[in-house]
Amino acid sequence: MTAAVRVLDLVPSETSTAYRGQVRALRRRGVDCATLAVPGSHVPGERSRSLRHYLLHLGRALRAARRDFDVVHANQGVVAPTALAAPGLPTVVSLWGTDLYGPLGPVSRACARAASAVVVMSEPMAEDLAVDCEVVPHGVDTDLFRPTDRPTARDVVGWRDDRLHVVHPYDPQRTVKNFPRARRVTAAAADRLGDDVVLHAVTGVPHESMPAYLNAADALVLTSEHEGSPNAVKEALACNLPVVATPVGDVPDRLDGVRPSAVASTDAALADALADVLAERERSNGRERVARLDRDRTARRLEAVYREVVADA
Q1: Which of the 8 DSSP states describes residue 139?
Q2: Tens-digit pLDDT profile for residues 185-210
Q3: Which residues neighbour 210 within 8 Å (Cβ) at sequence distance 6 or greater?
Q4: What are the CA-CA distances from residue 252 to residues 50, 137, 144, 151 (Å)?
Q5: Of the candidates 213, 205, 245, which has an alpha carbon nearest to the alpha carbon of residue 229?
């Protein structure tokens, strides 16, 4: 029997649903994952972690690394310097999107060059980073996120059935997600249709409740300035919910062949695409596009990365 890989996972916050799903899938494969999150909390527009929090995390990580681990995995670029400081362990750095394209981009790029292996969420990220990368996007829980009856879902979330409902699945305070643009686009689509269209910023709900919102909606709109491989889009596709999005990360590839759905760059084109999608009042064929992104499959690929860096150490 192959020995289990023992992984010290560094993460800004262990509340990330994508991260928690990844760990559950890895543990099902027998990978021994231990999580060390940065202390404190970050709330967009309200409070951020201080340098003291990251220094505390560094000290805890260095102490933890002395224990019996095979590899240290930095989940996001913000904790990559801490992972690289752990002596004697091979390092995997996963970049999620904002850590590559946001203010910490230079730090993430430097850490990627020093890591034993680099994991990115999409082919565009790999091409932009210009180092050897493994493209392993976060997987989707296709058992949880699946198509269900729309009227029933609307009863569950309390939405009226005589309106069209558009979901923006992020906190409006997250500037990179550009909620004001989503609001403009939805309003323009409503003007074109002459129908009552409601935009819902669905945030802060339990992850297990999200399928009800996606199945209750008529479309998901994503207006992000940059992304890696947004799980919200993949989860919408798993529910056969049409998506209208900006061409960020791997979204164009995910929506290729999905009908009705669209990718567009300008406000006018996004509004026209959203109006067209809402006018059809149909579900998409998106679920077939995410079948290969089941979490167990992506966990298998990540485990292979771990075993490779351990063998090369």
Answers
A1: P
A2: 999 999 999 889 999 999 989 999 99
A3: 145, 169, 202, 235
A4: 36, 14, 24, 30
A5: 245
Model confidence over 125-172: pLDDT tens digits? 999 998 999 999 999 999 999 999 999 999 999 999 999 999 999 999
- In the DSSP assignment, the letter for residue 293 is G
Chain segment 210-222, per-residue pLDDT in tens: 999 999 999 999 9
CA–CA separation, 58 and 302 (whole Å): 24
Q: Are 61 and 82 within 8 A, CB to CB?
A: yes
Q: In Å, how far from its chain's centre is CA 153? A: 24
Q: How far apart are CA 300 and CA 302, in angstroms?
A: 6
Name the β-bridge partners of 47. Answer: 43
Confidence class for position 45, pLDDT limits 50, 70, 90: low
Considering the entire predicted model, what is its pTM? 0.85
> Which candidate, 94, 212, 71, places its Cα nearest to that of 144?
212
